[in-house]
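pinned: reference chain
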Amino acid sequence: MEIIGEDVTNKGRIDLTIKHLNKIYIMEFRLGEDDPLQQIKERKYYEKYMNAGKEIYIIGINFNSEQRNVSKVVWEKLSN
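pinned: its structure tokens
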């Protein structure tokens, strides 16, 4: 497993990328209730890995500052 924090792309930085066997997980973390997948899609962070021949999953995790805990987790599998 390869873990890359602040993974640099030509359109910004992915908060966290995890490469594991035949899968790649692209993760975005958000404080508050903003859609965490929006930035991944708008900036097309996944394009960096489209030719890797692996399944790509985008994952968004929201944190609630008052509760100091995860408030929402959303994910999608991208088609190759």
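why pinned: The beta strands are 2-9, 12-20, 23-31, 55-64, 69-78. The chain has a mean pLDDT of 92.
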